[in-house]
Design brief:
2 copies of one chain form a homodimer.
Chain A lengths: L4 H8 L2 H9 L4 H4 L10 H14 L1 H11 L13 H4 L5 H22 L9 E4 L3 E4 H25 L18
Antiparallel strand pairs in A: 1-2
Helix pairs in contact in A: 1-8, 2-7, 4-5, 4-7, 5-8
Chain lengths: 174, 174
């Protein structure tokens, strides 16, 4: 499927409600369990999504449109949330993500991205030259991937509890 | 994590709203695309969840409580939805799943499952003896796994569109 801005927005606008439906008021046993050492809980993923909203998508889209390849993107800290989420509740994170996403979508409107702008390039610190449409596609896939991670992490809490059915549940071995 | 009925219900009650948030009014390009031959689209997965709701969870829980290991479960048809969903819209399927899940949760209340009943056994046509708690755990993992499948299938539609970022997006190679 080729990138289309209106298709991408259909996903981006849904993610806060999806996460709300899945996680709001969820008991801590589900929200704070992970897949083992060095892995992330649903709570950790929410913090990561918040940091991406603040530091990644719109700031990088602006960098592409304003500076092109001349200025390399700020590196993105994939682990910033361990510090930033401290002391917050899951409800705080859901509220904050919802507000930030709404702002991001407003900012995206203001950028007034027309089809001919999608091929504009920026400079990623590790990947080299990337285009605006690749950045916006990545935003969509990043949302979907982390929703998938959250449900996978939750599913794995019952890896043993399902008994012999484990063989029929591929999510438990992903 | 050990199975606990109230924890399980926290997931089961959320799934219809999660799917609604993710899929309601989604353009066909997202809802009807799959991962390639023999794979399922989000639309197909919704049909499968409906069939499981009708033919699997509560009927099998009842079979365990009424007949124990004496009567083998009816085999479950994993592909029934290709016929049953024909001519329906995604909105129809979301509506139907929401109604069926609400009924299932009411039926589950009526079964009045007390802790000592969780070890009761039934007979699976392929897996052999299974317990009520394994069945109910599987219901939870099945929900989460198929939400994960839906977002993975959607993410993969942008496998090419993300360009070099593909390397940072593990959902695209799962």
């Amino acid at each position: 499927m080729e990138f289309q801005l209106d298709h991408a927005k259909e996903i981006l606008m849904r993610t806060p409600a999806t996460l709300n439906s899945l996680l709001r008021h969820l008991p801590d046993e589900w929200a704070n369990s992970n897949e083992g050492p060095e892995s992330w809980s649903p709570f950790d993923v929410m913090g990561h999504l918040i940091h991406a909203e603040e530091a990644d998508w719109i700031p990088r889209a602006r960098a592409i449109l304003e500076y092109g390849e001349k200025r390399t993107f700020e590196p993105f800290d994939r682990f910033a949330m361990f510090e930033k989420s401290r002391g917050k509740s899951l409800g705080d994170l859901l509220d904050r993500f919802g507000r930030l996403r709404a702002e991001s979508l407003k900012e995206l409107e203001k950028l007034d991205v027309r089809p001919e702008m999608l091929a504009k390039r920026g400079m990623h610190p590790e990947l080299g030259a990337v285009t605006l449409s690749q950045l916006l596609s990545t935003w969509v896939v990043h949302d979907l991937g982390h929703v998938g991670q959250i449900v996978r992490v939750m599913a794995k809490q019952y890896s043993e509890a399902v008994g012999a059915w484990q063989a029929y549940l591929p999510v438990l071995s992903r």
